[in-house]
Write a structure and sequence with these properties.
Layout: H1 2-13, E1 19-21, E2 35-36, H2 39-50, H3 55-60, E3 64-72, E4 78-85, H4 89-101, E5 104-105, E6 107-109, E7 112-114, E8 116-124, H5 126-136, E9 154-155, E10 163-164, H6 168-178, H7 183-187, E11 192-200, E12 206-213, H8 219-227, E13 232-233, E14 235-237, E15 240-252
Parallel strand pairs: 9-15
Antiparallel strand pairs: 1-8, 2-5, 3-4, 3-8, 6-7, 10-13, 11-12, 11-15, 14-15
């Protein structure tokens, strides 16, 4: 019996990167287990950009994986959560903070959303964290003169809406310059609109990127790639930087006058 438990524990907790853990005996009866907005790739990017390694644990060179068990209800809301494998209080608390920032799709059973229990692993690697810090260092944090809200609530009504760090017109130019018309879409002469939703965090980076309207042909993946690289002035409420949700549309249109990096072209629009 002890051997079986050891094998199960090893299977559950031995993961090198952030991921949703799905065990065969857990997803019986459902067709799709709960998934964070954006899936595995968004989860990895999210941790790279949002994890704050506790100073004490950096000094002590503490690493590990924190595993969290949670119940996601039929509306995608987290009702219960607990740490089933921790490292220490500092890393455990940071893992919980990150977990609370995530938005979720519920489990699906025969096309209907249902409440379900699942697990997520939050890895702590000092080497990966230092590499992530180098990327974050390019952000001009001098613009963020207000304190950050710590309630983690996503506000719909704010005193000042989020804004692209260089202005709305610059965002259009940035997307037009960075976005590459996918080869598959060009071959199929595919045109249309990809609509993204995302959360602008108090640190000006975006999380929980989700496809509200897809297109195919690699267009939605390219839209996510470009949008995930943007930096924003966060929303403000009561003299604090707060979390706020935005929608943004990117229109892929061949021969529209905007040349991209793959010699295609596109028209972009938003808000």
């Amino acid at each position: 019996m002890k051997l079986i438990f050891f094998i199960l524990a090893s299977f559950l907790f031995h993961f090198a990167s952030a991921q949703i853990v799905t065990l065969p005996f857990l997803n019986n009866g459902v067709d799709q287990v709960p998934e964070n907005y954006g899936g595995k790739e968004e989860l990895k990017r999210f941790i790279d950009e949002q994890l704050i390694y506790p100073e004490e644990e950096l000094k002590n060179k503490t690493e590990g994986v924190v595993s969290i068990k949670f119940i996601c209800d039929e509306k995608g809301k987290i009702k219960q959560y607990s740490i089933v494998k921790g490292v220490n209080s500092n890393l455990d608390n940071e893992a919980i903070r990150l977990f609370k920032l995530l938005l979720w799709f519920p489990a699906i059973k025969q096309t209907e959303p249902v409440a379900y229990e699942s697990y997520i692993d939050i890895p702590f690697s000092i080497n990966k964290y230092k590499k992530a810090l180098k990327r974050r260092s390019k952000i001009n944090t001098n613009i963020y003169s207000l304190p950050n809200d710590t309630a983690l609530f996503i506000y719909e009504k704010v005193d000042k809406s989020p804004a692209f760090i260089h202005g709305k017109d610059s965002l259009l130019k940035y997307i037009a310059a960075e976005l590459e018309y996918p080869q598959e879409a060009k071959i199929k002469s595919l045109e249309g609109t990809v609509v993204l939703s995302f959360i602008v965090e108090p640190n000006g980076l975006i999380t929980n990127i989700n496809i509200e309207k897809s297109l195919g042909g690699g267009c939605q993946e390219e839209a996510i790639r470009v949008m995930s690289s943007t930096v924003w002035i966060p929303a403000q409420l009561n003299n604090k930087n707060v979390r706020c949700k935005l929608n943004y549309s990117i229109v892929f249109k061949l021969n529209s006058g905007f040349k991209d990096n793959s010699q295609g072209s596109q028209r972009v629009g938003g808000y």
